[in-house]
């Protein structure tokens, strides 16, 4: 299994962490189900040394690391039917297998594993997902005690600490809205998004919080709280004390939306227009739209102007959600999917 150091380094600085969550969830389930030894490579060189040093029952790559020079399957893989690819971003199969680097023995439909049941831009692959520990939100999950290993709790839970002064729901007026603006890259703050944020900041009883660094050059209203990079525990604490997540991205494919609805936020979910290059997606997060509609509120779409979008988002602020992990991302459901997928490799 691969886990390139660049992934962890990026996540520690506020970058994408979805690939780490998917991988560590899988490690926990495989060890719980099969008691297997798992070697994790942290670089291309280490992967080559491991691959040449022994024969494995299973090779777990991502859409980029399965290939060696020339974009062909790594030479140490003696049987391509032993390969699975963890996909976190809805990558098109034609991209994964560009230049025909994986041969006819590779079953695309079974061996490309998706983060969500909505299977990416081309509708292919198998839903694997990840899991969110329920104990952190006060739910009990049968069968999970002692099963977590491989550092998953460091990524998806593990207690809630202070959230860097971003506030708490305790004692707050239940009519107030606290909106987390989830977008860590300045490129997401387009003129249209900035217009929406500025308009929301003028509304009474609304608190806006963003993980943008305090020294970011994005021109936000002074009332918007900038937390900078948060640890997972701090981020979860922030979600617990908030009412909504307004996520930026095109589309949103990491774990943020599922974490938000698990910790009691309503997802303010952008609808796409026909002109936008989001092949296969109706909204920013189709999983929440389809599977968790009670925690979903949509805005935007074809023909919507800035004022119409503002009105729709304002209406969303009246909707509330309770904490609870969606069924598909609970430990036992996740573990059952892992067993259904990996029995053919490891039994």
Automatic annotation (TrEMBL):
Glycosyltransferase family 18 catalytic domain boundaries: 174-275
Pathway: Protein modification; protein glycosylation
Reaction equations catalysed: N(4)-{beta-D-GlcNAc-(1->2)-[beta-D-GlcNAc-(1->4)]-alpha-D-Man-(1->3)-[beta-D-GlcNAc-(1->2)-alpha-D-Man-(1->6)]-beta-D-Man-(1->4)-beta-D-GlcNAc-(1->4)-beta-D-GlcNAc}-L-asparaginyl-[protein] + UDP-N-acetyl-alpha-D-glucosamine = N(4)-{beta-D-GlcNAc-(1->2)-[beta-D-GlcNAc-(1->4)]-alpha-D-Man-(1->3)-[beta-D-GlcNAc-(1->2)-[beta-D-GlcNAc-(1->6)]-alpha-D-Man-(1->6)]-beta-D-Man-(1->4)-beta-D-GlcNAc-(1->4)-beta-D-GlcNAc}-L-asparaginyl-[protein] + UDP + H(+)
One term of GO molecular function: alpha-1,6-mannosylglycoprotein 6-beta-N-acetylglucosaminyltransferase activity
Domain of life: Eukaryota
UniProt keywords, alphabetically: Glycoprotein, Glycosyltransferase, Golgi apparatus, Membrane, Signal-anchor, Transferase, Transmembrane, Transmembrane helix
GO cellular component: Golgi membrane
An individual GO BP term: protein N-linked glycosylation
Pfam family for this entry, one: Glyco_transf_18
UniProt subcellular location: Golgi apparatus membrane
Main localization of the protein described in the UniProt heading: Golgi
Membrane topology: Single-pass type II membrane protein
InterPro entries, per the entry: GT18_cat, MGAT5_Glycosyltransferase
Top EC class for this record: transferase
EC numbers, comma separated: 2.4.1.155
Family: Belongs to the glycosyltransferase 18 family.
PANTHER family for the chain: ALPHA-1,6-MANNOSYLGLYCOPROTEIN 6-BETA-N-ACETYLGLUCOSAMINYLTRANSFERASE (PTHR15075:SF2), ALPHA-MANNOSIDE BETA-1,6-N-ACETYLGLUCOSAMINYLTRANSFERASE (PTHR15075)
Protein name: alpha-1,6-mannosyl-glycoprotein 6-beta-N-acetylglucosaminyltransferase
Species this protein is from: Triparma columacea
């Amino acid at each position: 299994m691969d886990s390139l150091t660049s992934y962890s380094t990026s996540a520690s600085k506020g970058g994408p962490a979805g690939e780490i969550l998917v991988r560590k969830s899988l490690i926990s389930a495989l060890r719980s189900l099969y008691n297997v030894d798992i070697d994790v490579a942290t670089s291309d060189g280490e992967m080559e040394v491991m691959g040449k040093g022994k024969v494995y029952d299973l090779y777990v790559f991502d859409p980029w690391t399965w290939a060696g020079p020339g974009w062909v399957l790594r030479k140490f893989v003696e049987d391509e039917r032993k390969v699975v690819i963890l996909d976190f971003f809805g990558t098109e199969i034609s991209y994964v297998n560009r230049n025909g680097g994986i041969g006819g023995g590779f079953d695309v439909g079974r061996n490309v594993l998706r983060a969500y049941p909505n299977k990416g831009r081309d509708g292919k692959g198998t839903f694997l997902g990840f899991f969110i520990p329920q104990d952190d939100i006060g739910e009990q999950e049968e069968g999970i005690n002692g099963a977590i290993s491989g550092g998953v709790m460091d990524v998806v839970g593990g207690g809630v600490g202070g959230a860097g002064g971003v506030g708490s729901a305790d004692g707050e007026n239940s009519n107030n809205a606290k909106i987390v603006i989830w977008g860590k890259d300045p490129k997401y703050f387009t003129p249209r998004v900035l217009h929406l944020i500025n308009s929301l900041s003028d509304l009474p009883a609304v608190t806006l919080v963003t993980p943008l660094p305090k020294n970011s050059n994005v021109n936000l209203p002074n009332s918007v709280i900038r937390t900078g990079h948060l640890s997972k525990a701090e981020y979860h604490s922030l979600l617990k004390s908030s009412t909504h997540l307004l996520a930026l991205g095109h589309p949103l494919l990491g774990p943020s939306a599922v974490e938000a609805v698990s910790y009691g936020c309503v997802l303010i979910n952008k609808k796409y227009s026909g002109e936008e290059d989001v092949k296969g997606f109706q909204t920013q997060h189709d999983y929440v739209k389809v599977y968790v509609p009670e925690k979903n509120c949509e805005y935007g779409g074809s023909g919507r102007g800035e004022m119409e979008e503002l009105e729709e988002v304002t209406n969303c602020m009246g909707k509330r959600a309770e904490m609870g992990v969606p069924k598909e991302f609970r430990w036992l459901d996740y573990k059952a999917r892992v067993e259904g997928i990996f029995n053919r490799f490891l039994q």
